[in-house]
Amino acid sequence: MRTFTAIFFSVISAILTAQVSFDSFFTDKVLRFDFMFAGNSAKTVVYPMGMKEEPFYGRF
After folding, report:
1. Does 59 fall in a domain?
2. H/E/C letters for each residue in the chain?
3. What is the pTM of this model?
4. Which of 1, 3, 8, 53 is at a distance of 20 to 30 A from 37, taking alpha carbons?
5. What span, in angstroms and rounded, lies between the C-alpha atoms of 33 and 54?
6. Cα dihedral sign for 20, 22, 26, 31?
7. 22/9 Cα distance (integer angstroms)
8. In a domain, 11, yes or no
């Protein structure tokens, strides 16, 4: 019975692949997030300065 169960799950896992195409959900762009740190010795605050969409330069 154990061998049947092992073979059954091996065959099922080989048949049922859950791979999703990466390119269907992402584009070749980068969102740059500019920010500024401010504060003192007791508190640190991060202020958003802007966001910019840019092409992805690091692709081979």
Report:
1. yes
2. CHHHHHHHHHHHHHHCCCCCCHHHCCCCEEEEEEEEEEECCCCEEEEEEEEEEEECCCCC
3. 0.48
4. 53
5. 11
6. positive
7. 27
8. no
Query: Does residue 44 form part of some domain?
Result: yes
Residue range of the domain that includes 36: 29-60
State pLDDT tens for residues 7-48: 888 888 777 766 777 788 888 888 999 999 999 999 999 999
Whole-angstrom distance, CA of residue 55 vs CA of residue 41: 38
Q: How far apart are the first and last CA of the chain?
A: 50
Which residues are paired to 41 by β-bridges?
Answer: none
For residue 8, being part of any structural domain is answered with no
